[in-house]
Design brief:
By secondary structure, the chain is mainly beta. It has no helices and eleven strands.
Amino acid sequence: QVQLVESGGGLVQAGGSLRLSCAASGRTFSGYAMGWFRQAPGKEREFVAALRWKIGSTSYADSVKGRFTISRDDAKNTVYLQMNYLKPEDTAIYYCAAAVFYSTATLTNADWYAYWGQGTQVTVSS
């Protein structure tokens, strides 16, 4: 059974950094796409970043491009989201997700991700 467990959230001042981790278990993820999404209070869930595990290619939302970096550690079966220069508008619950079937066009679409973690809260104070 696929399990995704996020960690690393917390409270940080604007301009600071956090690194989120997503520990994946239950199967081999080399053929999967892994994504980070976030949901702020009163808003819809939105795409943040994605990574094709096998080839390592990445995609980012325009709002985080240049500040966030998604990466993976094959040995630990873990995906990371390094977040730098955080802004108050980055405040949200951040979710890790895994997609079995995907294309370049669907990486930003939450509906294509079959597995989700429980989320981790990130709060950025001004």
